[in-house]
Amino acid sequence: MASFLIYFSAILFISIPVSSQLNDNELFFPGFKDLCTNINLHRDAQIEKNGILRLSNDRDLVQGQAFYSLPIQFKNSTNGEVSFFSSSFALGIVPRCPELGGHGIAFTISPSKELKGLATAYLGLFNKSNEGIASNHLFAFEFDTVQTPDFNDIDGNHVGIDINSLISRASSAAAYFDDSSTKQNLNLTSGKPILAWIDYDASENLLNVTISPHSFKPRLPLLSFNVNLSPIFHEFMYIGFSSATGLLSSSQYILGWSFKINGRAGALDPSSLPSIPDKIEQTGLTICL
Ligand SMILES: *[C@@H]1O[C@H](CO)[C@@H](O)[C@H](O)[C@H]1NC(C)=O
Ligand SMILES: *[C@@H]1O[C@H](CO)[C@@H](O)[C@H](O)[C@H]1NC(C)=O
Ligand SMILES: *[C@@H]1O[C@H](CO)[C@@H](O)[C@H](O)[C@H]1NC(C)=O
Ligand SMILES: *[C@@H]1O[C@H](CO)[C@@H](O)[C@H](O)[C@H]1NC(C)=O
Ligand SMILES: [Ca+2]
After folding, report:
1. Residue 11: exposed, middle, or buried by beta-carbon count in 10 A (0-12, 13-18, 19+)?
2. Is 130 in the pocket of ligand 2 (CB under 6 A)?
3. Looking at ligand 4, which residue's alpha carbon is closest to its atom 12?
């Protein structure tokens, strides 16, 4: 009986949701307060006092990355296949000048948490020598706020699925499907929270990405893309975010984040996430055309 009680309380202890730990391959960050040890910050990324993760401020030509500190086992080591996984996060982009935000944010799955990418349209993911190379083994879901012809961008307000390259394998103008399955445009640089979901069904080789300005997940994904991620991913990969500015710039934030292997990532409640700070007041002269 005593050993049963010890066992039982140990189970209880383990199953108490700990927002900062990876339990059963699951992450849940309703904000990032006091999480410096679990989230590795690079370059200009920082966690602000209210718990919001600021990937970049709105200065020219900066970049920032934030990765979960431990690698995630994406593949079944027996058969080498990537498992079902899903992630959800809330982001906010506050442009320095109205209608001229840059350059964007990318949810990133990478073999390394020390990216050696460039700012501007490279989003901190790649540089001129490794852009487009299969040995990158890098996957990104980009929120791109500048149209860059070199990377075949469709417009200056789109999302895209990137594999080893900034030339997206699939992209769409930022939008979501409402309850009546009507497509509604979504402004990435509104400065308001945007929720995003990424779901990969390994048995179907199907990757869905969905975004919304509301807290509930739209029934239809914005992009549903057929891809086998098994040749792209290593067995262990790091997950996180990268962001960059150029001569067009924005403060770029992640408000909360969840992730799960072999199941649906926990739902984020936007009302309990840190709020997006107002536009940072520039001390110098800012010229907005
Ligand atoms: C890994 O794959 C093997 C062979 O397909 C299967 O038997 C096993 O259940 C899988 N393991 C997990 C953790 O999914
Ligand atoms: C480009 O990125 C690759 C991969 O991270 C790195 O090995 C290389 O040193 C980088 N090149 C430059 C010029 O930064
Ligand atoms: C997006 O929102 C920003 C900030 O409110 C505004 O300046 C810009 O005009 C909007 N863009 C579009 C295409 O509605
Ligand atoms: C992806 O979207 C399609 C189309 O709506 C849906 O049938 C499928 O169940 C979705 N898969 C996942 C893993 O969410
Ligand atoms: Ca793009």
Report:
1. exposed
2. yes
3. 199
What is the share, in percent, of the chain residues with pLDDT greater than 90?
Answer: 84
Nearest CA to ligand 2 atom 4: 116
- Report how far residue 160's alpha carbon sits from residue 178's, in angstroms, rounded to the nearest whole number: 20
pLDDT tens, residue by residue, 119-169: 999 999 999 999 999 999 999 999 999 999 999 999 999 999 999 999 999
Burial tier of 49 (Cβ tally within 10 Å: 0-12, 13-18, 19+): exposed
Q: Exposed, middle or buried: residue 285 (CB in 10 Å: 0-12, 13-18, 19+)?
A: exposed
In this structure, the number of other CB atoms found within 10 A of the CB of residue 262 comes to 13
Say if residues 103 and 43 touch (Cβ distance below 8 Å). Answer: no
Pocket of ligand 3 contains residue 145 by CB under 6 Å: no
